[in-house]
Amino acid sequence: MKLLQRYILGELVRVFLLLVIALTVMLVFLGMFQEATARGLGPAQILQIMPFVVPSMLPFTIPATLLLSVCVVYGRISGDLEVIAAKSAGISAMQLLLPAFLLGTVLAIGSFGLLNYAIPWGVSNIERIVTQALEEIFFDVLSTQHYFSNPNEGYTITVRDVKNRTLLDATIRYRRNHQQITVCAEAARIHFDLEAKHILVHLKNVSGGGGDSDFSGEMKNSELRFPLELQLENVASRNLTMDTLRREIMRAEIDQKRLATEKNMKAAMILFTGDFQQLAGDQVSSLDKQQKRVVKDKLQYQAEIHSRFSMSASCWFFAFLGGPFAMLQARRQFITSFIICFMPILVIYYPVMFLMMNLCKTGTLDPWWAMWVPNLIIGVAGFLVLRKVVQH
Question: Is there a contact between 304 and 51 (Cβ–Cβ < 8 Å)?
């Protein structure tokens, strides 16, 4: 790389790092407080999740920050007539723009890594911290009030005391098949299982039960399992790694074939027996709903895979458009050039991207090409601007 190109690349990296740190810090605080409000976290948990919120923000801040950096650097050198001086020395505008294209390529690869690995890693750690916070709240309530109730799941726990996370003289009441069951234990240990979304209660020296309970009379050891109310939705596709998405697609295809076979067999059996009213019955309707859900999940996972490549490549396309545009707007302030360049992106690029994403999730369009339409629009606009810069 020549001296002039190294100089431009150094300016781009310096400005980019300064801007991305400032913008990411602002968005991290916004995302952090939004996460804390939604999940009821305290100050200690907020500080713990802060490092894991950063990766989820970077893929969205990097393209816009790169565009601003390109507008700053190329707007300044063009305003100082350095581009004209370089052209008079026989250096084309493309050579001056190569550092921006190189930085855009590197950031595109980095953004893909963040989308594929860093965001799932950050989300899993945030869920772990939330679970630990729930454990602390759970034991604090039992330690202070000696009573915990979850009316939604229909169980209550009463204890005499809590020592080292062990419940002493615990009395547990829960419902099973519309029957109230009471279990007493000399000691109980609580374990929160995040993956299975369950609270495991290990009981020692148990008495009680009866009815439809898991045990009756007296037992030395036993175990109860209650749903864990995390207030967390199912894991979104954007929080899964690429390998997990591909496995989910394969599983969805297998389920889709299995459900289709079951539906055909069920329909054949109904036709054979002559009970045609069952064709509109609950069993066939249930299979239809399962098929639609499986197809919906499959389309969502496929759209997510292609959207990651498209979103990552947007870094390069933003640099491809921003560099030449900043050269044309040499006499303007860099912030004006950025706004003039970014507003069409905000009005056209992102709405088209969300539209393509929704159409791909519904199966209307094929994601392998539809998710690249927004980048294609930016690429065409960048080519037209670059052509003017090269010619004049």
Answer: no
pLDDT band at 306; cut points 50, 70, 90: very high
Cα-Cα end-to-end distance for the chain: 25
Do strands 198-209 and 179-193 pair parallel, antiparallel, or not at all (unpaired)?
antiparallel
Q: Is 164 left (phi over 0), alpha (psi -120 to 50) or beta?
A: left
Q: Is the pLDDT of residue 210 over 70?
A: no
Whole-angstrom Cα Rg for the chain: 29
φ, ψ dihedrals at 53, nearest 5°? -80, -30
SS3 assignment, position 214 = coil
The predicted model scores a pTM of: 0.73
Q: pLDDT by residue (tens digit) across 104-160?
A: 999 999 999 988 888 888 877 877 777 777 777 777 778 888 888 777 667 788 888
Burial of 186 from C-beta contacts in 10 A (0-12 / 13-18 / 19+): middle
Domain layout of the chain by residue ranges: 3-133+298-391, 153-227
